[in-house]
Specification:
single chain, Rossmann fold, 7 strands
Length: 152
């Protein structure tokens, strides 16, 4: 099997295809802190119309933006299309294994979140993989908005 080189830029069609096809996104490392980048990304993706599922293991975090928080991917009560990861790169391999186990279609590592072993594991299981990118940034590239049927 040939693997993607995740150090190379992704094609527009690859990223656009993912953002158009996924509906339910589990965000591992979602934070209730409005000053955190993950909160802003969750907010924008949720407002754009994605079914967002925050994942945070802290027992005191039960909801973010009115969305029920799950302690782990395994606890989520519905199918997940994409697992978006706001964690340290060294956590990505374990999260990739969990993403495969729940039948996710996409593993997306946020900016700074890269691990080649995690990418290979996910690709071997048939997942599409994106690393070191932000879906919020990708979603709002102006030349894509008409193709994604969003207002400019």
């Amino acid at each position: 099997m040939s693997y993607m080189n995740h150090d190379e830029p992704y094609s527009d069609s690859y990223l656009q295809g993912i953002l158009k096809s996924v509906k339910t996104i589990a965000m591992v490392g979602a934070s209730p802190d409005k000053t955190k980048f993950s909160y802003g990304v969750l907010r924008v993706l949720h407002e754009t119309g994605y079914d967002m599922v925050p994942v945070n293991p802290r027992p005191d975090v039960t909801e973010i933006r009115g969305l029920k928080v799950f302690n782990s991917l395994a606890e989520i009560d519905r199918p997940v299309d994409m697992v978006e990861v706001f964690r340290r790169p060294e956590d990505l391999l374990g999260i990739a294994q969990e993403a495969v186990a729940i039948g996710a279609k996409v593993l997306w590592g946020q900016i700074g979140v890269c691990d080649d072993e995690a990418a290979r594991l996910a690709e071997d299981a048939g997942l599409q993989v994106v690393m070191n990118r932000c879906p919020k940034i990708e979603l709002f590239r102006p030349f894509w908005k008409p193709k994604l049927h969003l207002g400019i």
